[in-house]
Structures are given as C-alpha cells and as structure tokens.
C-alpha cells in the first residue's frame, strides 16, 4: 500500500488538516511546538507541519510507510518511529498529538480504541491537545458500506469494494491494484478493516481516559457539529 498511497491520496485535504491543527493550537495551546503525528502514513501532514516550524515526530505501524515518509526529505529534522498507537512507549510531554485520515477507524475493537486514547493521553504534556478524526456513522452507512470505487490511470488502476463487515458500522475494504512499471502492470491485493463509533461513545471513552472534549467539528467547519462525513475531535489534557 505504501507504494501507491500518495497516488491514491492526491486529493486528500492535507492543507485543511494543517490549517485545523494550527487553528486549534492557537485556541487551546498557543505556545505548543512539539507535535506527535500518530498513524502518520507517508508523512504528508508531518512534513507540512514541520515546514510551518513545528517540531515533529511521526509514528506508524508500517515500516514501509515510514520509509516513504523519510525519503521525501531525508534532511528534515523529523523523528520517524515504528510503534503501535495502542502501546506508545518512550514518548512524553508533547504539546499536541494528531491522528488524521480516519486512523482511529482502523481500531476495530472497543478495548483497542480505549487503549489508544489512554496511551496518547500519557504522551501529552499537561494542557496538551489531542486532535483526531473519524468517519461519521451516517457516512459509513449511507456512502461507504456496499459502495464500489474504481479508477484507471496511466500508471495506476484500482478496484475498491467497500463491503459491510460483521460488526455494527464496520467496513471491509477489498482493494485490487494494477501498478504500471516499464510498460507492464503488476497486480497486488489488500484487505483493510475499519469500524465506526458514535461520537457519544468516543466522548465517553475520551473522558474516561482523562481528556476534556472541547468540541466535535464536521468537515473542517469552524463551529461544532456532527452532521458531516468526517468528525474532528478537539480534546485537551486537563
């Protein structure tokens, strides 16, 4: 997946994530400089925030993703670490933790989500800010579950079946890629699983971990709401 991730994500709202992060830091931690990017993938947001002057650390479970991220700018003073977000180790006193692009949805077990929230809480300094997003339940049910996506390009083609999973509000992403190389196409397949959680449930788990939920925002709007496709949570360590 790391080989084609950036091609698939060309239209992702990276600048909106960066803008949202800066806006929330200005509001809740104006002196914050150290940011931990959990589930950083190929580092697009990490690099952008580094260019804005923040001290960045990128965490991902995939070593392939981290290799791509580091290769984008080997001279950048960014620390790249392979770790599981549910058991973060050796990381503390960060001003902000971010986890964007529905990373939390990849945790398909209630306990794993709660472990991740607790682990992230421990990685923050007092007064630190935790920002993350998830698919809204309506988006999962009405737009994703049962959908099929396909695209044909010169260097990449894919078919993406988005099937309902066994658990409530869960998804099984069945992806087939054809990647061009020297006039030939190489096929590979991947299965990804995600699960959606109601915002009230996430609020409760965050509170249990010690966070104060300052607001839930939909689709980068600047006023709280839960009627969009993407919920963005703003939490502080009190």
TrEMBL record:
Q: Which UniProt keywords apply?
A: Methyltransferase, Transferase
Could you mention a single GO BP entry for this protein? Answer: methylation
What CDD domains does its record include? AdoMet_MTases
Listed SUPFAM superfamilies: S-adenosyl-L-methionine-dependent methyltransferases (SSF53335)
Domain of life of the organism in this record?
Bacteria
Pfam families for the chain: Methyltransf_25
Q: Where is the Methyltransferase domain?
A: 35-128
Q: Name one GO molecular function term.
A: methyltransferase activity
**Cross-referenced PANTHER family:** TRANS-ACONITATE 2-METHYLTRANSFERASE (PTHR43861:SF1), TRANS-ACONITATE 2-METHYLTRANSFERASE-RELATED (PTHR43861)
Q: What is this protein called?
A: Methyltransferase domain-containing protein
Organism field: Halobacillus litoralis
């Amino acid at each position: 997946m790391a080989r084609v991730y950036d091609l698939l994500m060309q239209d992702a709202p990276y600048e909106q994530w960066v803008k949202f992060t800066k806006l929330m830091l200005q509001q809740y931690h104006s002196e914050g400089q150290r940011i931990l990017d959990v589930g950083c993938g190929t580092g697009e947001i990490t690099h952008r925030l580094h260019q804005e002057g923040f001290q960045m650390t990128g965490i991902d479970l995939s070593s392939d993703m981290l290799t791509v991220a580091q290769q984008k700018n080997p001279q950048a003073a960014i620390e790249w670490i392979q770790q599981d977000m549910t058991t973060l180790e050796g990381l503390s006193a960060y001003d902000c933790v971010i986890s964007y692009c529905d990373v939390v949805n990849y945790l398909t077990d209630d306990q794993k989500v709660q472990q991740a929230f607790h682990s992230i809480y421990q990685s923050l300094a007092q007064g630190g800010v935790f920002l993350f997003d998830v698919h809204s339940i309506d988006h999962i049910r009405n737009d994703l579950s049962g959908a099929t996506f396909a695209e044909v390009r010169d260097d990449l083609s894919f078919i993406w079946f988005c099937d309902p999973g066994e658990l409530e509000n869960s998804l099984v992403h069945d992806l087939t890629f054809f990647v061009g190389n020297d006039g030939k196409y190489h096929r590979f397949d991947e299965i990804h699983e995600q699960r959606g959680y109601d915002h009230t449930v996430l609020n409760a788990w965050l509170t249990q971990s010690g966070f104060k939920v300052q607001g839930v925002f939909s689709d980068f709007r600047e006023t709280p709401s839960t009627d969009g496709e993407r919920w963005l949570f703003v939490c502080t360590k009190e």
